[in-house]
Each structure stands twice: as structure tokens, then as C-alpha cells.
Amino acid sequence: MNALYRHTISFLGSLADFVFPPFCSHCHQRAPEGLTGGICPGCWSSVKKWEGGQCQRCGNQVAGKKSLCELCLIPGWGCSEVKTIGPFEAPLSDVIHMLKYSDAISVSRKLGAIMAERIVSDQKYNKADLVLAVPLHSARERERGYNQAQLLAEQLGRALGVASPKGLVARCRHTKSQTTMNKEQRHRNVEGIFAVQNPDRIKDKTVILVDDVLTTGATIGSCGQSLLAAGAREVLALTAAAAPL
Ligand SMILES: [Zn+2]
Ligand SMILES: [Zn+2]
Questions:
Q1: Are 101 and 26 in a shared domain?
Q2: Do both 89 and 165 map to the same domain?
Q3: Which ligand neighbours the alpha carbon of 70 most closely?
């Protein structure tokens, strides 16, 4: 596609949005100011956000600087901290669906910016050396065409000025769907499914490990353990939303 053609298409798109404002896919109202990632600015500002002092998985109050409450803590978890935008509820759950199935670039830009805001004042996250995505199995990535967590990692890396290389860690085993499993079964299901491809680039590094949704934390924790075993100094988890079991 040449540049003139691309500019013409984009100009016509803006003109169409001006004459016929698009509908927000959450509140279904026309959005004269345009959409970012499928929803209007008003709906983005209604996204529920958890603060410090709230468990980043269930939202319960926690004492001090802990990121998970007693109920959600996982012994031997591979991540020393976790931060999440908020609960997996609409409209956040809707935009995460769009991130996987449509409008991925636009949603990842907006979600990545909000995730960056979550950690910008945090000393530990701020000093991270690398941003990595929890990988999908290669067959699943081929099917979708991209890894949604990698899109978020790239936006975040750009916002923080930190590299977000792809392929340093791979998912080497396909796992069964975890939706019907309890917490213990989920942890067993994902044990040892990740392999670090290039330990030299991980050694002594503090890594922000990114995924779209945190459920029990089994998957991101297992990925974190593989990074630690390969020599990472610390692994800090960051997800767009947290879904209760
Ligand atoms: Zn809306
Ligand atoms: Zn909790």
C-alpha cells in the first residue's frame, strides 16, 4: 500500500467518523469524540481500578505493601509482586476480548498506557530491566496471528523506555483448558511448561512479566519460576485484569 493511498484511506475514515460518529461497543452511544480501543472516553474512565492496599486478585483490603491477600497468596509463587488494573468486569472485560479477537492494536495502546500509569510511581517496577510477555504456545499464536500479551508488553516497554524482546521464553507444552480446574489442579497443570531460550539475556535482570488476565496466577507464576531458575534477579507480574475463579 503506498503512502498516498494509506493517507487517503485514513482521511476518509476520519471524515466518516466526523459525519457518522462511531458507536461505543460498551454503552452503545454515538461517540463524537471517537473511540479508543472500541469504547468511548467516558467508558474508559468508568473502568474500575484497584488501588494499593487492595489485593490485586480479589480486591480485598491488604495490610502494608502486600499485593495479594492471605487467601490469594500462593506459596513458592514465581513473582514477588503483582499489579492489575482492576477486576475482570465490563467494560474492561469487553476491551480484553477485543484485544484477543478484534481491534488489537488500538486496545493494546490504551491498555498499555493504563498499565504503565499503574506502575509509574513504583520503585521496583520502575527499575526493571526487561518487559516480557507470558508466551502462548506457538500453535495457538499461529492460529490467532499474534500474542495479545506481547502487544501489551511492547506498549509498556515503550512507555517505560525498557526493551520488550520476544522469544526469550517459550511455552513448550500445550495445556488443557483450565476453566473447570480448582486452584491446585491449575498449578499442577502448568508446572514446567515454560522454557527460557536465552538465559544470558535474563541473568541478574529484574523482569516485568505481562499477561492479559490473572486468574489463580498459576500460569504467570510458572513462567516466573522458569525465569528465576534461568537466573533472573526478580520477576514482577503485571496484568490488565484479574478474574476470580
Ligand atoms: Zn461508551
Ligand atoms: Zn485476594
A1: no
A2: yes
A3: 2
Same domain assignment for residues 124 and 3: no
- The dihedrals phi and psi of 169, each to the nearest 5 degrees, come to -135, 140
Q: What HEC string does 169-192 produce?
A: EEECCCCCCCCCCCHHHHHHHCCC
Write out the three cell numbers for 116. Answer: 504503565
With contact defined as beta carbons under 8 Å apart, do 145 and 222 qualify? no
* Domain that residue 29 falls in: 1-46
* Distance between Cα 180 and ligand 1 center (Å): 33
- Distance from Cα 111 to the centre of ligand 1, integer Å: 16
Regarding whether 70 and 189 lie in a shared domain, the answer is yes
Residue with grid cell 496466577, as numbered in its chain: 217
pLDDT digits (tens, 9 = 90+) for 144-200: 999 999 999 999 999 999 999 999 999 988 777 777 888 788 888 888 899 999 899
